[in-house]
Design brief:
Length: 180
């Protein structure tokens, strides 16, 4: 049992590193996509594939590294997923901090304000509530330090990781029936 826990932690770190590198690659498209809508579509598509990659990594752990002959329970799979997303979030947070501390220089905030101005200038009815909420979000974002933004993104990634871990663990669990 202790060996299984060590293996769980070791493999979830490796899987979290793979997922974190994928998230960092995906994040590169975010600021570029703020100016180019097609690139934002690429970012969205890459984000869409995150749960599928997570499922594949859980299945790889289940089939090759879990020491349970291809069998894994819900709690075991759920724990692996949580650890994997936690490690991925921590690795990605380094990238986020570097970007917002040294590279961004208000670029994302400017793009958000441009998007808000576009919505304000549009003749669409019913956008007043949307504009107020968006303005509040921009005002909040504008006073946040790079560390605050990074911590916000870490907590967001962990929350979404928790949400993705539930269905992934349900789908990935497998009991091997013993032959008599």
């Amino acid at each position: 049992m202790i060996e299984d826990r060590r293996n769980l932690q070791k493999v979830s770190m490796a899987a979290g590193t793979i997922m974190g590198i994928y998230w960092i690659f995906k994040f590169i498209f975010f600021p570029i996509g703020m100016s180019m809508p097609f690139i934002m579509l690429v970012f969205g598509l890459l984000t869409f594939f995150v749960p599928f990659i997570g499922y594949r990594l859980v299945c790889l752990y289940r089939d090759k590294y879990s020491n349970n002959n291809g069998s894994i329970g819900f709690i075991h799979a759920f724990t692996f997923c949580l650890f994997m997303y936690m490690y991925a979030s921590l690795l990605t947070s380094v990238c986020h901090l570097v970007y917002f501390q040294f590279i961004d220089h208000g670029f994302v905030l400017e793009r958000l304000q441009d998007m808000l101005q576009t919505v304000k200038d549009s003749p669409l009815p019913g956008t007043d509530d949307y504009v107020k909420q968006y303005q509040l979000a921009i005002d909040t974002y504008s006073v946040m330090s790079p560390v605050d933004i990074t911590l916000q993104l870490v907590s967001q990634n962990m929350f979404y990781g928790l949400l993705m871990a539930l269905p992934t663990a349900i789908i990935a669990k497998r009991k091997i029936k013993k032959e008599n």
